[in-house]
Structure formats: C-alpha cells, structure tokens
Amino acid sequence: MMSKKKPYRIFGFIFLFFSFYTIFKLRIDNDYWLLLFIITICVSTDIGGYVFGKIFKGPKLTKFSPNKTYAGMIGGYLFSIISSIILTNFYFSEELPINWFIFLILISTISQLGDIIISYFKRLSKIKDTGKIIPGHGGLLDRVDGMIFAFPFSYLIFLIDFL
User: Fold this and answer.
1) Considering the domain boundaries, does residue 151 fall inside one?
2) Residue 19 contacts by C-beta under 8 Å, 6 or more apart in sequence?
3) Which of 91, 107, 148, 161 has the highest local Cβ count within 10 Å?
C-alpha cells in the first residue's frame, strides 16, 4: 500500500491540474476536432500496442513496464496512423497534411512515454492496479495515462504555433 505522506505527491497534483487545464484551454481555443484527434491518437496507440504486443510478442521495451514490447510500440504507431487517417477523411474528406502527420507521431510517442512513466511510478509505489472501476485493465489511470501527458504536450505545441 502506498503511503499518503510522501512529500513529493504535491507535484503529481500540480501536473494533473496542469493536464486538465490544458484540456480546457485546447477546447476553448479550438473546436472539438482537436480534442477528438488527440484522444483518437492516444486510444489507438494503446489498442495497437496491446494488440501487436500480444500477437507478435518479441523483445521487451523497458524494465519498468515488462509487458511493453517493440512490436507493441510499432503497433501503437500503426494503429494511431490508420485511425487518424480514417478520422480526418471522415471529418474533412481530405488527407492528413504533413505537419499534422508529424503532430500525430509526436503525440503517439508522448502517449507511449506517458504510459511507461506511469508504469514506472506504479512499480516504485508497489501498486499493480490503480482502481477497480475497470476490472482487468489496471484501473482507470491505465486508460488515461497517455492522455495525461499528451494534452499538455499538445497545448505547448499550439502555444509555439507549430500547426
């Protein structure tokens, strides 16, 4: 069981507040399309990583998260690319511009890194599941861990006016 008296847990609260703030700001400054695009990338990265990791197995990606494989990483990229192309064709009836494709790859990478970072912190705290809301999935945090990192990164990309 994790102790609640850790002095550094305030940084987690600050980061979560910043993450939710960036979701709010991205929605206010843009339309729903951007939020849907980022969520699609993160969810399809998770699904692709899981599917390809289970099917192809292969060498492990890190010690922090022993179920992550290189095949899963590649599958995460492939699923995010395919689902984003389908989404943009459905929403805009045109192909994905190159700067949005670069954005897609960056968000997919950040989502995977966020997943690994959260897994690392869970291992440090000796926590297997972060909740019982979604049984068998490691908790609700495992469904949104990539998004917690992807939204602030996206917000910073839009602040520097990359897109």
Assistant:
1) yes
2) 147, 148, 149, 151, 152
3) 107
pLDDT 10s digits, 139-154 = 666 778 889 999 999 9
Q: What is the pLDDT of residue 126?
A: 76
Domain that holds residue 111: 55-163
Question: Residue 149: which of 56, 41, 57, 53 has the closest Cα?
Answer: 41
Helix axes 141-159, 32-56, angle to 10 degrees: 130
Diameter of the chain by CA atoms?
Answer: 52
Nearest to 51 by CA among 78, 24, 87, 33: 78
Phi and psi dihedrals of 162, rounded to 5? Answer: -75, -35
Q: Are 80 and 112 in contact (CB under 8 A)?
A: no
- With respect to residue 86, please indicate whether it lies within any of the assigned structural domains: yes
Instruction: Provide the number of structural domains found in the chain.
Output: 1
